[in-house]
């Protein structure tokens, strides 16, 4: 074999390995023959190397999962993306509201809408409802808006993923609803929109359940923080409401994402709070605390009435739609017609209701106004939700709570003027108490109230009212509005992991095939099939497990029914195998929550 001549000074040395096929070498400094510096410049090489490095990083994360530092960087990116999504959603509402109602001062939209022609106030929600109906019936399988409840369900049952197509359609529908006179809040669609972002990232990284839930928590925290300029409450909301645990391993990335979302908000709006109080409230005497205990109980009742009114309205809407043979696409338009009729006389129901809430917190309403506005707002929110128009319940709960607290405070200060503070202090406590009871989140809601108002001096009064309202409401509903909504869909999350984990496992994941060791006999399986006792491979253990106790069985045949060829036997589900899988799921959940 002829020896290879050593390379000359100006020649390229031989390249071996993968680099010889992947990377072009610059002439004079390792350039491939025939290429010059003009054709492959340094910026192009740098961009190419960065692209390759990112591709290798993503491939590594897919194979081994992100390390802690990588995960924090991903959390930061998700926080920025979710923050911008929340910001754009809010700016979109402001832009469309200003266009449709013809005002630049959206802080006083309700006052301005009161002077518009009645036919315009009536027509806007109807037109908005028509658009919403088309969007939801084209892009969702059931014509239903996705919200916080679906995010909670995704965290518990779907490894931190939510529906992307239906989620984007829901965000668009909610944007139209809030811009054309719907009476709801913006936090529900924003939270689900953030969940769509985290789900896309989780799918790209092939994230497991724990990582997917943590990424979902990061997105939710950033969205709430960006939407309300509340970084502390945003982080705790994700942990308390969505993940429903306070695992240490999830705390750092969620805080990073929450801080990123807050920065996005403050770059646009500055460090101002959502509501400006007339003056800092303070308890005049500690003997006033019993009044806040009573306010907490009252707010708990109001919260339960608000939630049950929404559910009753939804049931009535479904019944009326069926009886009237109303196409689903027209249901939001009918709700818009009712909302427009109410808005002609009570324009304060339009949108999230920040102007009326501000009036309550600053004591600019009379007692009869506070009571009537609270009742009408509950009715308007129920119509919006029953009409499947979109939006959330948090902002309406803040408004109803502030009005309830103000009415209570005006009475309390009138009856006991010598031992009472200001009525606005009761409005602040009521705002937190009703919202906490509706969300089932006393910790994060209390902090949201403080961060929305900037008043940290009245913490004792707010916490007393929040604790009583949450304790009472959680016993009259399934812990919160969201969990009760899921219970109505036959999704049992309120009782904890022991109630819903069986729904996460399918029969085909744990049954024994006929050729497996200690498999069930074919004759015994056929006998049970003839008695109508069997399960399908795609059935969840939640549906299959009751068969063991109902018939006192050790195993149940796993069968697929075919119309032409009859039942196809796949094997048998043994009770001991199902219990073993359930036990492991419980152990994994406990390990995640305490890690």
Automatic annotation (TrEMBL):
Residues 528-589 form the CBS domain. GO terms for molecular function: chloride channel activity. Pfam families: Voltage_CLC. GO terms for cellular component: chloride channel complex. It is found in: Membrane. Residues 1-38 are annotated as: Disordered. Keywords: CBS domain, Chloride, Chloride channel, Ion channel, Ion transport, Membrane, Transmembrane, Transmembrane helix, Transport. This is Voltage-gated chloride channel protein.
């Amino acid at each position: 074999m002829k020896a290879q001549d050593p390379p000359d000074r100006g020649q390229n040395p031989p390249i071996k390995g993968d680099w010889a096929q992947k990377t072009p070498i610059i002439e004079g400094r390792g350039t491939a023959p025939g290429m010059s510096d003009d054709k492959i410049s340094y910026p192009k090489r740098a961009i190419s190397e960065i692209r390759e490095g990112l591709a290798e990083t993503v491939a590594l994360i897919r194979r081994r999962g992100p390390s802690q530092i990588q995960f924090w960087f991903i959390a930061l990116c998700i926080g920025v993306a979710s923050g911008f999504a929340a910001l754009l959603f809010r700016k979109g509402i402001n832009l469309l509201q200003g266009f449709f109602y013809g005002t630049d001062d959206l802080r006083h939209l309700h006052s301005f809408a009161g002077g518009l022609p009645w036919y315009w106030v009536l027509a806007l929600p109807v037109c908005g409802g028509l658009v919403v109906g088309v969007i939801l019936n084209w892009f969702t399988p059931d014509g239903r808006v996705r919200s916080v409840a679906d995010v909670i369900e995704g965290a518990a049952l779907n490894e931190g993923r939510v529906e992307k197509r239906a989620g984007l359609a829901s965000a668009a529908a909610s944007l139209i609803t809030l811009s054309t006179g719907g009476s709801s809040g913006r936090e529900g669609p924003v939270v689900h929109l953030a969940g769509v972002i985290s789900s896309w990232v989780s799918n790209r990284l092939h994230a497991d359940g724990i990582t997917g839930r943590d990424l979902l928590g990061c997105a939710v925290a950033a969205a709430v923080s960006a939407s309300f300029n509340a970084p502390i409450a945003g982080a705790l909301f994700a942990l308390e409401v969505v993940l429903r645990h306070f695992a240490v391993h999830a705390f750092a990335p969620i805080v990073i994402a929450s801080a990123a979302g807050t920065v996005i908000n403050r770059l646009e709006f500055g460090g101002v709070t959502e509501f400006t109080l007339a003056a800092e409230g303070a308890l005049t005497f500690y003997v006033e605390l019993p009044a806040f205990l009573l306010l907490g109980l009252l707010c708990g009742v109001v919260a339960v009435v608000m939630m049950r009114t929404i559910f009753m309205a939804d049931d009535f809407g479904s019944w009326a739609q069926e009886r009237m043979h109303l196409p689903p696409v027209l249901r939001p338009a009918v709700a818009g017609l009712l909302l427009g009729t109410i808005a002609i006389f009570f324009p304060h129901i339009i949108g999230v209701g920040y102007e009326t809430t501000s009036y309550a917190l600053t004591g600019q309403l009379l007692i009869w106004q506070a009571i009537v506005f609270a009742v009408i707002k509950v009715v308007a929110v129920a119509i919006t939700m029953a009409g499947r128009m979109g939006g959330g319940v948090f902002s309406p709960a803040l408004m109803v709570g502030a009005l309830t607290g103000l009415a209570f405070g005006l009475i309390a200060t009138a009856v006991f003027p010598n031992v009472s503070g200001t009525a606005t202090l009761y409005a602040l406590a009521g705002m937190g108490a009703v919202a906490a009871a509706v969300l089932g989140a006393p910790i994060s809601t209390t902090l949201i109230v403080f961060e929305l108002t900037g008043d940290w001096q009245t913490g004792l009064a707010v916490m007393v009212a929040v604790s009583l309202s949450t304790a009472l409401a959680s016993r009259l509903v399934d812990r919160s509005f969201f969990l009760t909504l899921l219970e109505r869909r036959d999704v049992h999350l309120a009782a904890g992991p022991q109630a819903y984990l069986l729904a996460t496992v399918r029969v085909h994941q744990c049954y024994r095939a006929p050729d497996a060791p200690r498999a069930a006999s074919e004759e015994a399986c056929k006998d049970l099939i003839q008695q109508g006792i069997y399960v399908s491979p795609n059935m969840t253990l939640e549906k299959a497990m009751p068969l063991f106790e109902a018939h006192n069985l050790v195993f149940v045949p796993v069968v697929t029914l075919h119309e032409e060829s009859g039942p196809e036997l796949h094997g048998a589900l043994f009770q001991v195998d199902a219990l073993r899988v359930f036990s492991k799921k419980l152990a994994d959940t406990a390990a995640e929550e305490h890690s």
